[in-house]
Write a structure and sequence with these properties.
This protein is of the alpha+beta class. It has 2 domains: about 280 residues, Outer membrane efflux proteins (OEP) (Up-down Bundle), CATH 1.20.1600.10; about 90 residues. The protein is about 65% helix and about 15% strand. The protein contains 8 helices and 8 strands. The strands form 3 sheets. The chain has a 4-stranded antiparallel sheet, with no helix packed on it. It starts with a helix and ends in a 6-residue tail after the last helix. About 20% of the residues are buried.
């Protein structure tokens, strides 16, 4: 009895696990969830985020140039042969202009000292810090642009997947209607009120719809796989997307600078800061430096062996001023001025292009909105015509060809409606991007 209970419990557990897996496999993901998952897992975004951290570390590295530098140096030398010095013989009463070689010092030399340096005035360091800050800003804007591109790609794929699902819904409905029509025509044929070719036409229609459904299902799986890659998921992960296509009817978005424009504007700041740094490089710099340590001398020949140490230290100021560098800095400044001028032209060109694209996107969206509403009405009319034609066919007032023609009209209206929705959603995405609202 206990064994039966254990087996029964294991069976219930297995069924529960299978049911949980089934629920997970059918989990419906919204567009927001797909985008959030991509932001957390997408490898491109992780690279851009690392670039931001690298930029911050570089900024801290440049800022560290304002801090004092301290280092400890020590060395030991043993002179196998002491160096020679030339002594003027006149020092010892000899003739002028004649020298005598002499060896000075001891074989053992030990040095150990602590050195420090502190920049008191260096105008380039401040400019380098400003450039590093702008570099971080550029890295952040590149991250946002990658995030924007990811949002755009995922939204497009998600909308395509929704359209494919709606196509499958339409096809399944058409298959169901065709099967009902097939049963009616087959019944009429059995009663010798319809031809066998009529039954074959409907059978062929059903086969075509089944093939179309399989093709669309394959495309849907491919789109889902593309979504999984962008979201950083495994291809074996299972989820579904929302069948209902929801779109907001917004006539106009508030206009904001796009990320491309912000990047060019930030680049302008960087170029101007680089020019300022070149100008400051012509100014003098002042540094405080010093050293404190000990010097040891040793002699190892008997009977006068010794090793004595002597303290040594100093503090000083070091000024640097570049008097002439062969006009290199002047040439660099001229180049940088031209780069600033080109960047300003590029900014104006980008604004003009964006204004034109924005106007075209607004027009495209307006047309797409009207097309969606018109396509809805066309589907209703086509469905009504199809139903009436089927009814007339049952009454012997319409042929099978008439039914097939009305069915084709209905499917064409359905496809036009889906195409209109695709155009609307794409126009909406484009309008959000061009107006700087895609991440909102």
């Amino acid at each position: 009895m206990d064994l039966i209970k254990i087996k029964y419990g294991l069976l219930l557990t297995m069924l529960l696990v299978l049911s949980v897996q089934s629920v997970k496999a059918q989990e419906v993901w919204s567009l927001d969830k797909c985008i959030q998952t991509a932001i957390e897992n997408n490898k491109k975004l992780k690279l851009k985020k690392n670039n931001i951290e690298i930029g911050k570390e570089k900024k801290n590295q440049v800022r560290s140039n304002l801090m004092p530098k301290i280092k400890l140096e020590a060395d030991y030398k043993y002179f196998i042969e002491l160096p020679y010095q030339l002594m003027p013989m006149s020092v010892f009463g000899g003739p002028e202009g004649q020298f005598k070689e002499a060896q000075f010092g001891v074989p053992h030399n030990i040095n150990a000292n602590l050195q420090f340096a502190l920049p008191l005035y260096n105008p380039q360091i401040k400019s380098n810090i400003d450039m590093a800050k702008i570099g971080v800003k550029i890295a952040e804007l590149n991250y946002q642009r990658t995030e924007e591109e990811l949002y755009f790609e995922i939204s497009n794929l998600y909308y395509n997947a929704q359209i494919l699902l709606r196509q499958m819904d339409f096809i399944e409905s058409n298959i169901e209607n065709s099967k009902k029509l097939h049963s009616n025509i087959k019944l009429l044929k059995d009663n010798q009120l319809a031809l066998g070719t009529d039954v074959d036409k409907i059978s062929l229609k059903i086969l075509q719809l089944e093939t179309q459904k399989a093709t669309i299902k394959s495309k849907y799986v491919q789109v889902l796989n593309g979504l999984k890659v962008l979201m950083g998921l495994s291809l074996d992960d299972n989820f579904d997307i929302d069948h209902n296509i929801e779109y907001m009817d917004i006539s106009k978005y508030p206009s904001k600078p796009t990320l491309d424009i912000k990047l060019v504007e930030t680049k302008d700041r960087l170029l101007k800061t680089q020019l300022k740094s070149l100008k400051k490089s012509e100014l003098p710099s002042l540094m405080l430096y010093g050293s404190y340590g000990t010097v040891g001398y040793g002699y190892d020949k008997s009977p006068n062996e010794f090793l004595n140490f002597y303290s040594m230290g100093f503090v000083g100021l070091k000024a640097t001023y570049n008097l002439f560098d062969g006009k290199i800095t002047k040439k660099k400044k001229n180049i940088k001025k031209k780069e600033i001028e080109n960047n300003a032209l590029q900014l104006d060109l980008l604004k003009d292009q964006n204004k034109l694209k924005l106007r075209n996107a607004e027009l495209k969206m307006s047309i797409a909105r009207r097309t969606v509403e018109t396509s809805k009405s066309q589907i209703e009319f086509a469905k009504s015509i199809y139903d009436k034609t089927v009814m007339q066919q049952k009454q012997g007032l319409a042929s099978v060809n008439d039914v097939l023609m009305s069915d084709n009209t209905l499917r064409e209206a359905q496809q036009n409606y889906l195409s209109a929705i695709i155009e609307y959603l794409k126009a909406d995405l484009e309008l959000k991007k061009l107006s700087g609202n895609i991440l909102k």
